[in-house]
Specification:
Chain B: It holds the Pfam family Aconitase_C. The complex is a heterodimer of chains A (467) and B (198). With 467 residues, chain A is an alpha/beta fold. Chain A has 16 helices and 18 strands. In chain A, the strands form five sheets. A five-stranded parallel β-sheet of chain A has the order 5-4-3-6-7. In chain A, strands 11-10-9-12 form a four-stranded parallel β-sheet. In chain B, strands 1-6-7-8 form a four-stranded antiparallel β-sheet, with helices on one face. In chain B, strands 2-3-4-5 form a four-stranded parallel β-sheet. Classes of the chains: A alpha/beta (467), B alpha/beta (198).
């Protein structure tokens, strides 16, 4: 008997449906749940008000990352509101027996960095967190997506949420990337083509040679940005690269269980004749280092190009003008050569070891531009330790950079790491919304290579000049 | 959470003809530090509403006294970005019960439905009609009828239908939430968990 050809997404989704509600959502089982200090307190409050507990505390993992300081983490947190949220996480997790890697814990870090690096994230799983960049974990062939606080409460109470099944999209990028073109550029390129709402209502599978040949870190960067085109999540079929990354990690299966798991994971791929609701195919040769010029991640362009005119864009002219006005840019401006003030490398998008290696490859033997303030923030303590072990810290120090401590930092500026109003920041994070990095801050999203080139020149510079 | 039941809402509306209104605009991250759900309305659209020195910006619609009501009418792709439910809480706390747009981001839409704000998705053409009607008369009454799944500009009778799944519609009309439903399924869920791979 031949089964109906199905997609990777269908295989994982359908295996997690507890019940289908007619003319309603699926009751969807969640294997792993991550929580952090900002979107969980009200969920715990909800449980208390209802007088119910946490059904499976061993399936939830907590970390503090969003509002934590990135210097002097050994001292009490100065901001009283942040301190209160951190305390609430500590109290709530202790009360319900949930694992908590809080500030100062050696495994602490950004939720989407520590999940994979500890092997908590595995292929075929369903993973949610009250954070839209949960899509990151899709790099392992998991269905992973962000949820709201009401749903955090649902998962705590019942290990399930109610989700209508999204439509399916496949994005193929064929060929191989040119020198100086990073996974972040692939993501920004796709989003610039699809717009920031182009994949809303869909779950994406990334396929084709570019993703097959990409490292796990790179796949995480791309899946992370899926939400920036509106997709709930994105995933890549697990393969030898995935297994090699996971083998030996603390929470990954061991021995016989590992062999059994790998055998199952190898079945997690889209069948040859399976169909998608939408498909896009791109050629890697068309992708150059990217940079954004506007106030959503779809407003990006190849670094050598000029800012598009309103006529070339899909949206309304008033919205486009508002964005350029906020950025202090004009239509047709060249991006190359624009002076910048800040560089931020880090976040769940580009805060992994490979990102710091890339950054170091350009700043090595060069000096930070005097006009630039740089915030170099590892995604976790594990990444921080790797930076030191591999000698990257020495390269950074030599070039005039300081390494900060792990956290979400300037990506969303909930802590003290705020870009001042009107200043330009080349940022390896994921969102260039108005005020995202601080009230009035102007964000230019880019890869770690573009960020490095900007950090040493003080202006937007094509990183290929340095490679 | 407990929220007002939603059946038929008749109200004037506040127009926000901007596209891609993301959740960082609805409620900036620096105001997400509360450990309770209440009070976010004060910071709704904070950086569009107030200057750095806390003075209200006269050109922003929430500061224009001619506009009021429980319905927010916004440009396409409303609620993109972060999953923060605080964005929906802020709209609710401010007094909105319904957001109308030609397109919504997924997570925002789910969050809104979970806390008692009805997201009404309509065609781009009808959205234009709404903006024109409100521009012509800031007190123009709009009727959002959930049982019938229609939205009507009362002065002209222009009407369009909108989609919502039967389960969520029933919840909104009765003020139910999903957790009660899930709690009632505990046995089925524990059996499912016992057979799960991870």
């Amino acid at each position: 008997m031949q089964n109906q050809p199905t997609t990777l997404f269908d295989k994982v989704w359908d295996a997690h449906v507890v019940r289908k509600i007619e003319d309603g959502p699926d009751i969807f089982f969640i294997d792993r749940h991550f929580i952090h200090e900002v979107t969980s307190p009200v969920a715990f409050l909800g449980l208390e008000n209802r007088g119910i507990g946490v059904l499976y505390p061993e399936r939830t993992f907590a970390t503090a990352d969003h509002n934590t300081p990135t210097i002097n983490q050994h001292l009490p947190v100065e901001d009283p509101l942040s301190a209160k949220q951190l305390k609430a996480l500590e109290t709530n997790t202790a009360k319900y027996g949930i694992s908590h890697w809080g500030l100062g814990h050696h495994k602490n870090g950004i939720v989407h960095v520590i999940g994979p690096e500890n092997g908590i994230t595995l292929p075929g799983m369903t993973i949610v967190c009250g954070d839209s960049h949960t899509s990151t974990h899709g790099a392992f062939g998991a269905i992973a997506f962000g949820i709201g606080t009401s749903e955090v409460e649902m998962v705590l109470a019942s290990q399930c949420i109610m989700q209508p099944k999204p439509k399916k999209m496949r994005i193929k990028v064929n060929g191989s990337l040119s020198k100086g073109v990073a996974p972040k550029d692939v993501a920004l390129y796709i989003i610039s083509k699809l717009t920031s709402a182009g994949a809303t209502g869909y779950f994406v599978e990334y396929a084709g040679e570019v993703f097959e040949n990409m490292s796990m870190e790179g796949r995480m960067t791309v899946c992370n940005m899926s939400i920036e085109m509106g997709a709930r999540g994105g995933m890549v079929a697990p393969d030898e690269t995935t297994f090699a990354y996971l083998n030996g990690r603390e929470h990954a299966p061991k021995g016989e269980a590992w062999e059994k798991a790998v055998a199952y994971w190898k079945t997690l791929k889209t069948d040859a004749d399976a169909t998608f609701d939408k498909e896009y195919v791109y050629d890697a040769a068309d992708i150059e280092p990217m940079i954004t010029y506007g106030t959503n991640p779809g407003m990006g362009t190849g670094i050598s190009r000029n800012i598009p005119t309103a006529e070339e864009m899909e949206g309304g002219k008033s919205t486009y003008d508002k964005a350029l006005n906020y950025m202090g840019f004009q239509e047709n401006d060249s991006m190359i050569g624009k002076a910048i003030d800040y560089v931020f490398i880090g976040s769940c998008t580009n805060g992994r070891i490979e990102d710091f290696r890339a950054f170091a490859s350009i700043v090595k033997g060069r000096k930070k531009a005097d006009s630039v303030t740089a915030w170099i923030v590892p995604g976790s303590h594990v990444v921080e330790a790797q930076i030191k072990e591999e000698g990257i810290l020495d390269i950074l120090t030599e070039a005039g950079f300081e390494l900060r401590q792990p956290g979400c930092s300037a990506c969303l500026a909930m802590n003290e790491d705020k870009i001042p109003a009107g200043k330009y920041a080349v940022s390896t994070s994921n969102r260039n919304f108005e005020g995202r990095q601080g009230p009035g801050a102007r964000t230019l999203l880019a890869s770690p290579l573009v960020a490095a080139a900007a950090a040493v020149t003080g202006k937007i510079t094509d990183p290929r000049e340095f490679l | 959470m407990a929220y007002d039941k939603f059946t038929v809402l008749t109200s004037s509306a506040v127009p926000l003809p901007i596209e891609n209104v993301d959740t960082d605009q609805i409620i900036p991250a620096r105001f997400l530090k509360a450990t309770k759900r209440e009070g976010f309305g004060d910071n709704l659209f904070r950086d569009w509403r107030y200057a750095n020195d806390e003075t209200p910006k006269a050109d922003f619609v929430l500061n224009n006294p001619i506009y009021s009501g429980k319905i927010l009418v916004a440009g396409k792709n409303f609620g993109s970005g972060s999953s923060r439910e605080h964005a929906a809480w802020a709209l609710y706390d401010y007094g909105f019960r319904c957001v109308v747009s030609s397109f919504f981001a997924d997570i925002f839409k789910g969050n809104a439905l979970n806390i008692g704000i009805l997201p009404v998705q309509i065609s781009a053409e009808f959205l234009d009609k709404l903006f024109l009607a409100i521009e012509a008369d800031p007190n123009a009454e709009i009727e959002v009828n959930l049982p019938e799944q229609t939205i009507t500009i009362l002065a002209t009778g222009e009407q369009e239908s909108f989609d919502i799944n039967g389960y969520k519609k029933h919840n909104m009309m009765n003020g139910f939430d999903d957790i009660d439903y899930l709690q009632a399924m505990k046995e089925e869920i524990t059996a499912f968990t016992a057979a799960s791979l991870y």
